[in-house]
Specification:
With 603 residues, this protein is an alpha/beta fold. It is built from 16 helices and 20 strands. The protein binds a DNA duplex (10 and 13 nucleotides) through strand 16.
DNA sequence: GCGATCAGCT
DNA sequence: CACAGCTGATCGC
């Protein structure tokens, strides 16, 4: 649970994920995602008064968070103040003091956080330095190295402070099995059960929150069915989810809830009281976080907890290892915890976070911008000497090979000075995303047919905020509406799709492959670990594979990071057939680099 | 009556 | 295996 008080010391004029007390005076608000513990005070009367008396104060969030927030009637008053921002699209915001007219400029970039639908991290760049607020996040090892907007000129940006999700930043929570591992295990468990007979049903005992959607859709896709949930309203403009959930009770997979869910299920009845109960066999699966120590083999991601009852591993938050990887890569000057882990103290978590901070000032002047050179040289070598481990390298280098004749796909779309000359934030216009059509902007927000949406709104309105007895008529209406849309459709969305809105996505899900941003190629710690000849080590960094990286990280967990970043950028692991360049070759390469020639062509 | 806070529960 | 959030009691405005 977040205990972040809402303000960052570098930019105290803005408030994040907190809307009461001192935050009532913020010049702008930011919402990382729509969990209640990040929305404290968001519907308070004092805040409403503040909004009404202000002509400038806005709430910035992802387009998905906007939809989720406005799916509750209690939050509708926010509509005219919300400015949805696309992910990975730097936006300039003017923070104006309405009394004095004084203004401060700030550039904000939303980055995917992998926590729940719509969840983002905020990168702020302004007069007081670069600051990253993570909100809650679940990022895998190596993910941070692929985030373009955390890099500049081929290296990681100089980050002053990170306000980090420290929920599991405690060595007890050393590793948590990957999302894919956990979901696959749940799919197997569900599949084995519901195959027994049509009367065998599964109840997913999910906590009330967004975040399980990719599990629902995966199950829906695997078993060509829909998951029964209490309310569809919040997904009304998210067809990728809507296709796999239903208010129709007659399905074998349920994630519905009732105040007395536990009692129902113990009595072999579903919370929705589907059927008489006597003839159903209900398997209860409770998604819960499981963690494993540094040397524990994380094999059992599903545990039997009783008759027809299981716990299955499922985490919305990054493990200790993942947070450590994230921070060690960014090397901020300071880190602040947003959460005190269970059983720990603020002092303890702060002390441990400090260990991930920068040990000495960055020496940017000594830096030679050879990140691209490394990569190109490595690639040129690979064209004649493929790596031993295709799984680790192929995927990454395929993308680069395709990109090589041109510039990097993403960077080529932007002006090099984009960060210095970001676009200005638009004025808030309800239901209008800035600078692009909804189709261009968001996989989520596209309503295939506006009349369908209106129709849907009409028939689901009665369920909004209604926690009393079930509404049979509403159930039927929703089912009818969904029936008109047909059965679960097409290509299944991937889990990433539920957490991010990539502006490059198009409607058909023909997502541009998410190519690694160049620093990823030197691995999470390569700038600090210059291991000349260890090809395997370099490949592990490249693979970003949970398994391989965990093994490596586990063996080095307690070692202090090497102090030197000063070794040559050519001190890169070589493939077996390659040779270390001679000084003459180096000079030629430098000249080519300066001339902007294609470095992938061998001399 | 409403909001804030906390304990208890799942 | 510990997240997120609901419910109810209590207190104050």
């Amino acid at each position: 649970m977040s205990s972040f008080a809402g303000r960052m010391k570098e930019y105290p004029n803005i408030s994040l994920d907190c809307f009461d007390r001192d935050n009532l005076h913020a010049r702008a608000y930011f919402l990382s995602h729509c969990h209640k513990d990040h929305m404290r005070g968001i519907k308070g009367p004092k805040l409403k008064r503040r909004l009404r008396s202000s002509s400038r104060v806005k709430l910035y969030c992802s387009p998905v968070s906007k939809e989720l927030l406005l799916s509750s009637r209690k939050h509708l008053f926010w509509e005219q103040y919300i400015v949805p921002l696309e992910l990975e699209s730097p936006t300039q915001i003017s923070l104006v003091d309405e009394a004095s007219g004084e203004s401060e400029e700030l550039v904000v970039t939303l980055l995917p956080a992998g926590h729940c639908p719509g969840s983002v991290m905020f990168l702020f760049e302004g007069r007081r330095g670069n600051v990253l607020y993570t909100g809650d996040f679940r990022l895998a090892l190596g993910d941070v190295a692929r985030m373009e907007h955390l890099h500049s000129g081929g290296r990681v940006k100089d980050i002053q402070s990170v306000y980090v999700d420290s929920t599991f930043f405690d060595p007890r929570f050393y590793q948590i099995p990957s999302r894919e591992t956990c979901v696959s295990a749940i799919v197997r468990l569900v599949g084995d059960w519901i195959a027994r007979s049509a009367l065998h049903v599964v109840w997913l005992n999910c906590k009330a929150a967004y975040g399980y959607e990719y599990l629902f859709t995966r199950l829906g896709q695997e078993f060509n069915t829909r998951v029964h949930v209490d309310n569809l309203l919040m997904f009304r403009r998210m067809p990728e989810i809507l296709s796999y959930v239903t208010c129709e009770r007659r399905t074998q997979i349920h994630a519905c809830r009732h105040r007395k869910s536990q009692q129902y299920v113990h009595g072999n009845r579903l919370p929705c009281a589907c059927g008489t109960g006597a003839d159903l066999r209900v398997l209860s699966i409770k998604p819960s976080t499981m963690w494993f120590g540094e040397r524990t083999h994380a094999s059992d991601v599903v545990i039997k907890s009783g008759n027809d009852a299981f716990r299955a591993c499922f985490s919305f938050h990054s493990s200790y290892c993942e947070v450590k990887d994230f921070l060690s890569y960014l090397q901020p000057v300071q880190v602040f915890p947003n959460v005190v882990p269970m059983g720990s103290t603020l002092a303890e978590v702060t002390r441990m976070l400090r260990m991930t901070c920068r040990k000495r000032p960055r020496d940017d002047l000594a830096y030679k911008p050879l990140g691209l050179l490394k990569r190109r040289r490595r690639l040129a070598t690979l064209t004649t000497a493929p790596p031993d481990d295709p799984d680790s390298d192929d995927d990454l280098f395929d993308g680069l090979a395709a990109a090589l004749p041109k510039k990097l796909p993403r960077t080529s779309r932007h002006h090099p000075d984009e960060h210095r000359a970001p676009r200005a934030a638009p004025q808030a216009t309800p239901h209008t995303a800035p600078h692009a059509t909804p189709e261009e902007n968001s996989l989520w927000l596209v309503a295939r047919d506006r009349s369908d949406i209106n129709n849907f709104m009409d028939c689901t309105e009665s369920n909004d905020d209604d926690d009393s007895e079930e509404d049979e008529q509403s159930d039927r209406d929703q089912t009818k509406w969904l029936g008109q849309r047909g059965s679960p459709c097409g290509e299944p969305p991937k889990w990433e799709d539920f957490f991010t809105v990539d502006s490059q996505n198009n409607l058909n899900g023909q997502r541009q492959a998410r190519r690694p941003f160049s620093p990823a190629l030197s691995g999470p710690s390569s700038e600090r670990e210059d291991d000349d000849d260890d090809v395997a080590d370099f490949s592990l960094s490249l693979s970003a594979s949970d398994h391989s990286w965990q093994k490596r990280d586990a063996s080095e967990a307690d070692e202090p990071p090497p102090s030197s970043q000063s070794s040559s950028d050519f001190d890169v692991a070589c493939t077996p057939d390659s040779k270390r360049p001679t000084p003459e070759q180096l000079a030629r390469l430098y000249r080519k680099l300066a001339d902007g020639d294609d470095l992938s062509c061998p001399d």
